[in-house]
Amino acid sequence: MHEDFARADPGNDLPIHVFVYGTLRRGDDNDITRLQPEPRFIGRATVHGTMYHLGAYPGVVLGGAGVVSGEVYAITLALERLLDEIEALYPQQTDEYFKRRVPVEVHGERLECIVYEINPSYTVGARTILSGDWVRDRHA
Prior knowledge:
This protein has a single domain, classed as Gamma-glutamyl cyclotransferase-like (Hypothetical upf0131 protein ytfp), CATH 3.10.490.10.
């Protein structure tokens, strides 16, 4: 069964892309590849930011000199809505995460990606993950 990937902007042909860096990464607790509708893996990538260990999951504050490792997927609008629920943006509408759109380079191509950025107020006293890699840090 083939499902068309939703468009980021109804006025153009760009699909929705998401950069995942924590428990949504392949093989982790909320592995995005186990969600439906199934996403399409695009590739590994990095963004600039600082990653924090928040217990059972990480959070990233975008920007700065740090580098955060993750994966980029093409997703449907339905899966974007499910990710919003996982990140407590909807229907709970908490202030823990902000949904951002940032350019991410994958295989030499710049893609506009959704990134769920942690509200910096939730990082007070949290340990910084210097490697910027949640999977590597968890298994170290």
